Amino acid sequence: MFTFFRKLINNKEMSEDNKGPAHPKNWPVTVENHDDYITQRFEERVCFELAHTHLCDAIKTNEKNPSDQQITAVTPLKFDSNSEDEPEEDPEEKPPTKKARIGNSSPNQIGNPEAIKSIDRITFYDSIYIPLETAEDSEEDLVQLEHVRTVFNFEGGQLTNSLIILGKVTLQDIPDILFCRKISDELCKSVGNIILPIKKLKLVIFKERIEIHLSDSAEKGYPMKIIYKGEEGKGKRICGEAVHREMDDYKTLAACDCFFLLKSPELKLGKLGFKIMKDESMKRYPDVSVLDIIVNLLAALEGLISVSKICYTYSREELYVPNTVTNYLPHLLENFKPTYLDEIKIRVWNDEKLCYETEQWKNAINLDIQDALIPKDWDNFAHFEEIKVESVDQNDLRKMLENRPTNADKEYIVTVLEPLKIEDVKEALKNSGTFDKDPETPEFDFPLKFTQNGDEVIFHIDIKEIKVSI
């Protein structure tokens, strides 16, 4: 550990006193000359684990390569190129002009729930947030991992201490703070005491990336955007032109970063958002397991967070895919100060195409949605032969009148758990056709027959059943 610091001092003294040259960054990387290489990787924000791997590979390569092909500290690292980004659109700043239909089927009516199930979920484990513990020496490594971490710890300490001494942190400093947090437990605790200038925070889930948007004011917009993407199973933290490369997958990286920001001391958020990006190309439910990591981390947090307004997009995957959990709002709310929270805004991710446009939905015969939490979208029910619902009100009757049966038999039957109210039937249909009984007499009661004016749509209505035919 002390060899590195002594070397820094000696090199500086040698250079200043002209007693000999310091090791330049363009010298070949060797077992003896590698600290400049490590420092350069820190400056490039390549995590110490990856820096160690590349360092050992560079030394081995230099032992084989001729002198004119030697790797130096400034030799660029090679990484895979990025895939095309998804379209830039903010689900909050650009609300959809058409209200999403949100009725759906039960799992048995989807046909194959696995076809729309979210994939690549991440799993919480106890040490997920903790920086890598001290690594044991390996005889196979030409330079030990802990030596690389020692250099990173020194550089990270210098960087973050300067922010602490100045006492003023900007949004632009936050990505570097996040990078340094993961170097060691010592740095993690140190930067955890820094007061961050965050007034608004929003986490946005895309098809193949996650974004964290930050603002230091209550004004519209988010000046800081941190993008998380994956590459060969590892995560990248992208902040403008800067790219931070980490060992964690991008979802875990985003979750831990979000937790770090939420537990910032003296944090008072005017607005906190958890959004799912609208994307017409998605054929499955979006993976929201990043929220599972966040709520598990928050569960161990002492004290409650000051949040004035929370915006939350709900994925209904758990309603239609067995053994899934996608509603984390109750767990999030448990971590907010009840006397500080003023507003809760909830939206539902538009899953209409996932169900209504599948062949399974179009070819299904029966629909069972006898659950008050599932809305009834009669516009997409007309092809079923039997529809089971919990209740039918006046609005349901009017929508049924608008949606003629489209199946081969030209009829469908709606059965209800709760008895129909004769007053609802009378009020909903009285101006649209004729009953077989006079609505103004005591005889007006179930069973009833109703015929729509001109179109010959016929309702046979009983207290717990409606048959619609043409």
Report on this model:
One of its GO terms (biological process) is innate immune response. Residues 316-393 form the DUF38 domain. Residues 65-113 are annotated as: Disordered. Pfam families: FTH (PF01827). This protein is an alpha/beta fold and 470 residues long. The chain folds into 3 domains: 2-69, no CATH class; 107-128 and 145-350, no CATH class; 365-469, no CATH class. The protein is 30% helix and 18% strand. The protein is built from 15 helices and 17 strands. It has helices at residues 2-16, 35-43, 48-64, 107-110, 145-166, 174-181, 185-191, 250-262, 289-299, 317-320, 329-333, 352-356, 359-363, 394-402, 422-429, and strands spanning 200-205, 210-215, 224-231, 234-239, 242-245, 268-269, 271-276, 306-307, 309-314, 343-348, 366-369, 386-389, 411-416, 433-435, 448-452, 458-462, 465-469. The strands form 3 sheets. The protein has an 8-stranded mixed β-sheet, with helices on one face.
